[in-house]
Amino acid sequence: MTRINSKPSKVFDNNWRTVDFFIDIEGSLQDKNVQKAISELNIIADKVTEVGSVEVPWFPTRIEDFDHIGKKVLGEEEIGELDHPQFRDPVYKARRKFITDIAFTYNIRDAAIPRVEYTKDEIGVWQYCYPRLRKLLEKNGCDESNEIMSEMERNVDGFGGETIPQLDDISKYIQG
Known about the structure:
By secondary structure, the chain is an alpha+beta fold. The protein is built from six helices and two strands.
């Protein structure tokens, strides 16, 4: 047994409050000792429910594991030309590949996240979109989101409507 937890049951029986016990074990439901323990619990308990172990998906256990997370970019096959007409534009595709290649070369232990020199057109799109999205966030976002956006505008170089902020500047502020 690796853990036992008890709490008052929500069920009343003959005016007596019952107690629910939750027991974690190391082993499987097929193990003879586990089966014997469950049989004995069935003798003294009103009800025993067996729950199989939940398969835990892989998750990072070392900082370097983050070097392998999220290094997939949706391409034409996943999005399709109908959903993303820019996929027909060779200039767009080349720029997207350039930025993707920068991201893929980054590793978590690198001193800094690589900086991207954005084009005049990219900055123009940012300058158009950011103030409009910011107004929507002020109207529809929670207080905490609005507070952190204001803090980042005050404290992160380039965070705001004038230019596209660099990920390294944002990361350093958050780690700060």
